[in-house]
Amino acid sequence: MKKITLFICSIGLACSTLTQAANNQTTDRDDCQSAAWYSLAAERGDATAQYKLGMMYFNGDEVKTDYKKAFALLNSAAAQNNAQAQYHLATAYEMGIGTQANSQTAFNWYLKAANLGNAKAQYKVADMYQTGQGVAQDHAIAQVWYQKAANQGNTLAQSALNR
């Protein structure tokens, strides 16, 4: 049992170390190796690395733009409750980037991210309730979500509350 626990701890430390190495590389643009480091950590299941590498593929940073790879990586990170990945995965579903557009699935991912405290996702949930996109229209629930996002400084939500 001690060996299993030690092994599991060493995997977590290795992923954390690889992700930190990638983070360090992103601050030093003379040595653009962060994609390689993130890739190693992502392969080992590190959600932060999966998210960051997914965004690199999405934006074409250090790697060739590949929406399918970006979508797959964001999906893996989102499944591990990475709120940023959930937000961007929802956006991919909403816009049909790397996958078929699906406003209901987009709403569900925005809601997961919103429940984890992501202010941009809280605004999107409010907006989708307000317009009835991907969910039944409900102005009262929209106001609750606008308020949550506004409380975190989201200026779009603050403007929506002042309409």
Automatic annotation (TrEMBL):
SUPFAM superfamilies the record matches: HCP-like (SSF81901)
Q: Extract the InterPro entries matched here.
A: Sel1-like, Sel1_AlgK, TPR-like_helical_dom_sf
State whether keyword Signal applies.
yes
Q: Which UniProt keywords apply?
A: Signal
Stretch forming the signal peptide: 1-21
Determine the domain of life of the protein's source: Bacteria
Recorded hits in Pfam families, A to Z, give: Sel1
- Stated name of the protein: Sel1 repeat protein
